[in-house]
Amino acid sequence: MLGRTRFSLNGWSTAWRSEGSLRLHVAVSLVAMAALAMAGASAWWLAVVAFAVAACWAVELLNAAIEALCDTLHPEHHPGIGATKDIASAAAFTVNMGLFVLVALALYVALQP
Question: Which cofactor does the UniProt annotation name (predicted)?
């Protein structure tokens, strides 16, 4: 188990160093969680948003892995590789937009009198 944890942490470290979008998503997510907590969001909302944040980070990591694999296996431009990378990016965009809506809804609920 510890060996696998080490592989996972190595993956996080590699993605953190190479993926600016991952660093941005982590920072924005932490700010959003702090804003929800300060707005008085319930523990239920915080838990739901925390799970959604984890899902977004996971999809960002998968997107980074797919892009790295594509770039390694086929460094030249290829329409199929481009489509693969675009689709992986679309998956990340979709889950992040869902998180945005969820955070907005949680803030709306938390700020109601």
Answer: Mg(2+)
